[in-house]
Amino acid sequence: MKQINMFGQEYAPNQEDSKYSKKIETPIYEPKNQKPHVMSLYDKLKTDRLINEINNSKVSDEDKKFLIEAAKRHTVFNYERIADYYANSSKEVQNLMEKSALVIIDFEKAIQLGYVRLCDEIKTQYLEEYGE
């Protein structure tokens, strides 16, 4: 028995839709030999607008502090430029970027820092496909 989904399309329940793939492709950035300007790594427009609105509100200082921290999640990062910046930075900057999970270079280190949780099976499959 066919049904209608929320997009008005017919589908048969419990059947996989062949239009969609379950394969997940990890973005791999190829760094250029040029270090971008640090201000081009992120966009704070929405964040800054929210913070301005929060600061101009009549909410308590405690609420403002919380809302300002929450507003920071709206900062948009350009990971392609971040990869270029990382590739052309000092070891100290690279280490701090890795600790901030701006880049993940080493699965073992990322796991130690708590950013990546992989079971051995997934890790083995990844290494078979992509190598060390």
Characterization of the model:
The protein is built from 6 helices and 4 strands. Helix 1 (45-55) packs antiparallel against helix 2. The longest helix is centred in the middle third of the chain and has 11 residues, at 45-55. The protein has helices spanning 45-55, 61-71, 79-87, 91-99, 107-112, 120-130; strands spanning 3-4, 10-11, 42-43, 76-77. With 132 residues, the protein is mainly alpha-helical. It has a two-stranded antiparallel sheet with strand order 1-2. Strands 3-4 form a two-stranded antiparallel sheet. Strand 1 and strand 2 (10-11) form a beta hairpin. Helices cover 43% and strands 6% of the residues.
